[in-house]
Amino acid sequence: MDEEYDCIVLGTGLTECILSGLLSVEGKKVLHIDRNDYYGAECASLNLEQLWGKFRNGQSPPESIGRNRDYNVDLVPKFMMANGEIIRFLTHTDVTRYLEFKQIAGSYVYASGKIYKVPSTEMEAVTSSLFGLFEKRRAKKFFEFVQNYREEDPATHQGLNLDRDTSATVFSKFGLAPASQEFLGHAMALHLDDDYLNQPARETIEKIRLYASSMARYGLSPYLYPLYGLGEMPQGFARLSAIYGGTYMLDKKVDELVYDAEGKVCGVKSGDEVAKTKLVICDPSYAQDKVRKVGSVVRAICLLNHAIPNTSDADSVQIVIPQGQIGRKHDVYIACVSSAHNVCAKDKWLAIVSTIVESDKPEQELESGLKLLGTVQEMFISVSPLEVPTADGTADQVFVSRSYDATSHFETVCEDVHDLYKRITGQPLVLKQRSTQAQEQADMAA
């Protein structure tokens, strides 16, 4: 470890592993360290023994649950939009060679005490029981507007300026009822709260378009999920880094960051060893003096021996419970996968309920989601801080990522990667298609 590196990355969360892979491909000498003995850090996928060790130290998992190796339990539940930015990261770096994906079977929204399948096209809006007769017509016209909107063609704008008019103004133009607005903003645009209503409509319209285009790609739902859990994704980018000379050290403690006389980072200390560098990338847990807490996320990891009721026995679903339905300020999310995704034993399901903490009793804030699950076999509760860096990192060359938020997809993670990359290199990240494994082998043979 006593040598010099272009960059040292602390923590093997997805954000850190993507950046490690990208910088390694660009020829940087990267050392990657994690205090844990597994990949993924906060977004790891744990086997049974690791799960019990984290939440019930000293106890052993009951034999009735199944074998240790059958489980890969996500600590942070997120699905991938089929047309989302995370798919671009995976395909452009060819990390897809290390992963297999399966579609999430259904996307649902909670309304008036029931769960409904999320309609995402004008035809589904017309047939959905979520809307009344007249509201179906208005929803159909809104979906047609979203689908036909072209920036370069004012005839498709219907007199709206998405950079000036708010989401509330756009919804009002189509006469959409509050219940429909709630559905569009929370179940499709996937906003965490209602602040978006008073902001320019472009982001919301783009998010609805992303949802609809992702849905159209495969049908059933807009989401994909990697077999063997989300922990496979950091490992995939770690392999990419290793191919280009990146060095990985798991189960390695980090004692402190070392700075030079000018206050710039110059190394990372572990025990009696110091690895030299002029650049550090890390998650908030490695730089607590450089972050501030902006909230907390509470999550309940639940093991079930049945599908979630009223989801047609689906092997996987997402359910959004909009905050307005349950008198909260933030939505509650349910992400459910099963043995079909190689994350638990046969005939078992894993459901994770999560939301932003609003009170001093975070567990109670999950009750609306837990009620929808039916009988829960085992449950593990975690409360994680939401932390953001206090500086951009350019002064001391320590670049800190953001905590994983309560969103049910990876779009905010990708935004953080783009932001960090630009701060680190001074250049915007341009994803370039790498050679595929088959192309590389063909080149070597030639």
Classified in CATH, the superfamily of the largest domain is FAD/NAD(P)-binding domain
Shape designation: globular
How big a fraction of the residues is strand?
A: 15-25%
Task: Report on the biggest sheet.
Answer: 7 strands, mixed
CATH fold-level assignment of the largest domain? FAD/NAD(P)-binding domain
Outline of the structure:
With 446 residues, the chain is an alpha/beta fold. It folds into three domains: 4-46 and 231-292 and 387-445, FAD/NAD(P)-binding domain (3-Layer(bba) Sandwich), CATH 3.50.50.60; 56-105 and 222-226 and 296-386, 2-Layer Sandwich (Guanine Nucleotide Dissociation Inhibitor, domain 2), CATH 3.30.519.10; 119-218, Guanine Nucleotide Dissociation Inhibitor, domain 1 (Orthogonal Bundle).
Overview of the structural elements:
With about 450 residues, the chain is an alpha/beta fold. The chain has 3 domains: about 5-45 and about 230-290 and about 385-445, FAD/NAD(P)-binding domain; about 55-105 and about 220-225 and about 295-385, Guanine Nucleotide Dissociation Inhibitor, domain 2 (2-Layer Sandwich), CATH 3.30.519.10; about 120-220, Guanine Nucleotide Dissociation Inhibitor, domain 1 (Orthogonal Bundle), CATH 1.10.405.10. The chain contains 12 helices and 21 strands. The chain has helices at about 15-25, 50-55, 85-90, 120-125, 135-150, 165-175, 180-190, 200-220, 230-245, 365-370, 410-425, 435-445; strands spanning about 5, 5-10, 30-35, 45, 75, 80, 100-105, 105-110, 115, 225, 245-250, 255-260, 265-270, 275, 280, 290-305, 315-320, 330-340, 350-355, 380-390, 400. The strands form 5 sheets. Strands 9-8-17-18-19-16-20 form a 7-stranded mixed β-sheet. Strand 12 (about 255-260) and strand 13 form a beta hairpin. Helix 1 runs parallel beside helix 9 (about 230-245) and helix 1 packs across helix 11 (about 410-425). The longest helix is centred in the middle third of the chain and has 17 residues, at about 200-220. The chain is globular, with a radius of gyration of 23 Å.
